[in-house]
Prior knowledge:
Blueprint: E1 4-7, H1 13-28, H2 41-52, E2 65-71, E3 74-83, E4 89-96, H3 105-116, E5 122-127, H4 131-139, E6 143-152, E7 156-165
Helix pairs in contact: 1-2
Amino acid sequence: MSHEIRPGTAADAPVVAALHSASWLTTYTGMVPAEVLGDGLAEERRELWELRLSVDYGEPANTPLLLLAESAGRLDGFAYLVPQPDGRVLLDNLHVRPGLTGGGIGSRLLAACRAHCTDRVLYLEVLQANARAIAFYERAGAVRTDDRIGWFPGGHPLPEYEYSFPVRPPGR
């Protein structure tokens, strides 16, 4: 199945939020407190994406980028890149529709993210308990650069790793 990768817009907020919620439920059950994945999850993700995609970030260099992977008009994955004050770019989200993981959608999205960040370090934060995601990022060339405590909605502290992708030399 071929997927088109395109930039997302504010109009995509509802479908991104729905996929984000479904991915969290599938991936994070047993990793994060159950209340994080409870009844308010879909509404919280909807509000988050409506806000993220409607804010004016000013300078284009400061504006996050939402990338969508679609096939036959259906959203099957997304990635969200957030420029940071230190010059790096945070891969804040990379999610693939449950049931489609392992089929190359995440790899295509990650490649698009890396292509967008050719002259900047791309980094991400991943829960230490998320062995599948860690293996995915390590296979893709990410290097662990930190470990710390991350914070999930509701003020839940969870151990996470930071992974970074080195800047690619021109022509690679």
